[in-house]
Design brief:
The protein contains 3 helices and 6 strands; from the N terminus they run H-E-E-E-E-E-E-H-H. By secondary structure, it is an alpha+beta fold. The two termini are 23 Å apart.
Length: 115
């Protein structure tokens, strides 16, 4: 997986890329997995993306790793899901305590049952 991370980020050392240095990718989210991450498959392998929903087309950048898998942050939601909503907490995207506030409640329940 280290090789996948290096190909996605263009990094050749052990440093974690920042929002300024991360290479941007356009991907489509397949599903939500444990931890609230959106899962997408790229030519280089699987990536996890925060704050996304299944079916969304997003522009992302790799900002870290979780168990060897690249973790991305969304920069732009190109095609949002119909189940997307504005989080009611102004700190939702910063704090990290509630990872599904951007999802309508009925969809949250469906996703949690699926997981």
């Amino acid at each position: 997986m280290r090789d996948v991370f290096m190909r996605l980020t263009g990094e050749g050392n052990n440093s974690v890329p920042t929002a300024k240095t991360a290479r941007r990718l356009t991907i489509t989210i397949e599903r939500i997995v444990h931890g609230g991450f959106g899962l997408a498959r790229t030519e280089q392998g699987v990536v996890l993306v925060t704050d996304t929903l299944p079916g969304e087309k997003v522009e992302v950048g790799v900002v870290g790793r979780r168990s060897g898998t690249p973790v991305c942050t969304p920069y732009e939601i190109i095609k949002p899901s119909a189940s997307r909503r504005a989080p009611f907490c102004p700190y939702a995207s910063v704090c990290g305590g509630c990872n599904q506030q951007h999802i309508l409640y009925d969809e949250q329940v469906r996703i949690k049952k699926e997981i």
